[in-house]
Request: fold
Amino acid sequence: MFDNNQPVGYYFFELLTNHRDMPRPANPEIRHRLLIDGGRVIHTAGFNGAGVQDIVAAADVPKGSFYSYFESKEAFAAAVLEAYWDSVEQRHGKVMYDARIAPLARIEKLFELLVVDHAAQKFRPGCLVGNLSLELSNTSSEVRKVLERILARWQGMITACLDEAKMRQELPADSDSEQLASIIIEAWEGAVMRSKVECSGDACRRFQQVTLKRLLI
Reply:
């Protein structure tokens, strides 16, 4: 309610003050830059090797902006993981649902595409899922939950193809699709880790040419 005894302009000044105290609306472009450019720092340097200053410098945003979008560095790492896996699914996930390709060939094609991704970076950064599993799964429940969701989504895609292969009698009917899908992912992550150590694609190619083919018999 207005008070006629207050001086002219009092309520206008009060409105400006209240407006100034209100949080600024989120800028999706800044958040995107933090996730992509800042996320690249996490991917290459690791969670513990990348400071908030490194992240905001890569994204070219003020340091204070970081905590406007993420409550903590762990929350940022969790969001980066989600963005990383969303990108993998957007670029390569569709091959797993392509009915023109036999189901086992779809699985082989997915890992072929992933090898191309790693080769483009000379096998140096490794897989962000594997990297942060080793670095944070024992210390951050927030990141571990995201990792669990990603692995479940990945396993689900492969399991669906394996189930279809069983229906087509391309795999034994008594094959455990979920267990086999888990083994495939675990073998792949081991190969990527060794490729990262050696800065070479040899381990990934062995996975493609030997391990995966033997698992899909």
The radius of gyration is 24 Å. Residues 6-23 have pLDDT under 50 and may be disordered. The CA atoms of residues 150 and 194 lie 21 Å apart. The chain has ten helices and no strands.
